[in-house]
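Re: weekly structure request thread

Next one in the queue (377 aa):
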Amino acid sequence: MATTTESIEELLEKFWRVESCEDHPAWSKEEQDCEEHIRATHSRSEEGRYVIQLPKCVNWDHMLGESRVTALNRYRKLENRLEHDINMKEQYHAFMKEYLAMGHMRLLTQAEQLEESKGLERPRVYYLPHHAVVKESSFTTRVRVVFDASARTDSGYSLNNILLKGPQIQDDLFILLIRFRKHEVALVGDVEKMYRQILLDTKDILRLRIFLRFTKDGPIDVYELLTVTYGLTPSSFLATRALQQLAEDEGKEGTKSRSALLKDLYVDDYIGGASTVDEAIELRKDLTSLMAKGGFPIRKWCSNRPEVLSGIPEDQLGTILTIKFELNPEEKVQTLGITWKPKADQLKFCYQVGAYEGKWTRRRILSIIAKLFDPPA
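Done, posted below.
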């Protein structure tokens, strides 16, 4: 029988504690090594995109084992699942075709696949299993593909086991929201496919191979991912670090767009603003221009003042009715896991407990409370 010495009051109190505003603790040696690695090895393509080498631990090349069989077996299971859900299958394949069309992955040639099948390159190669994640609240892509870099090889180590995570280099959400509320004119945007705008060094694309086919009758092909992607331990750090590097490389000292890029982003969400409508419009244009220099398009613009969004193409707005706030006063958009109502300029947490016919236990109540204090994104 398991027991606990914590009272129900102590457990509940954990959910009520406000995040500390103290400075971030000093970086660990691993975090420092990760930062130094990126600073020393990053480069830029002819188009201005950042090219990075994955930060790895010491002796990583002796840790990875065979991963091909596991990834292939999991892909066959994924195919069976998709065959029972045609709608998901169509969206999954559409996602992958877009991935391919955007140049974020490439199909290995027949000669390369023959060499791959003979195992001549292994174990330097890592095969990523992948699966579908459905996000009902998404305005753009409901079905997304997530790559599992935590799948273990036959040595017991996964790709994520050999990668360095990197330090936290963005402010906490609480601090970001406090700054956001200081602005008279609010402005929110989203960096489109932020991770995938960063290219991988050719030395690392061997570590990001996947199995895929678009027709059940055809052969299962091998593709290589060419960009930073979801599922890698350092992905969040690499993306935010690239944005900060862009601010250093292209942002003019003292400009609001440079400061916004350094201070007002939480992962891929820009959340800031200005004192006046004119300043907000200028900031939006300058920030868009600055980020474009690094290949980071920004979209899903929202504001509590519709005139700030004048002239923006509809497909770059956060929601269809963003400019016409009066038509739908209760319109809501999601930002950082918090519901923001642009017209009222209010931040809210929306959560429904839902019907439950089972027995109400302390475990279930605490589970519901945890969701209230950690709302889904």
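Residues 320-332 have pLDDT under 50 and may be disordered. The longest helix spans residues 68-83.
Next request, please.
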